[in-house]
Amino acid sequence: MTTSEYDTTMIASSIIDDDVFTKSMESSMHSVTFHIGDKVYYHNHLAIVRFIGKTAFAEGIWIGIEFVSRPLGKNDGSVNGYVYFQSKQNHGLFIRPNRLTLTKK
């Protein structure tokens, strides 16, 4: 079949919305599902998941974690005055899901 024989409505209906495509790619790239309260590792440091979702500071899905043992983060769960979760100062960090490792339960 040559290009001229394709049905143009079929081609138009097969175009994927960039935002939907990005979200589906993000979710398919990592098969781990995180929940609030999960214990995770980030660079071999134990943390607890405190937030999962979209933020005002950047596109996509972010996970807010609270480091357990010491201040390895960059915030207290808030960014630019918006509170996503609460933790001690410098115990909070926002990270992409694919950068975390879920602990074994």
TrEMBL record:
SUPFAM superfamilies listed in its UniProt record: Cap-Gly domain (SSF74924)
InterPro entries to which the protein is assigned, alphabetical: CAP-Gly_dom_sf (IPR036859), CAP-Gly_domain (IPR000938)
SMART domains named in the record: CAP_GLY
Q: Gene3D superfamilies per the record?
A: CAP Gly-rich-like domain
Q: Where is the CAP-Gly domain?
A: 53-96
Q: What is this protein called?
A: CAP-Gly domain-containing protein
Q: Which species is this UniProt entry from?
A: Rotaria magnacalcarata
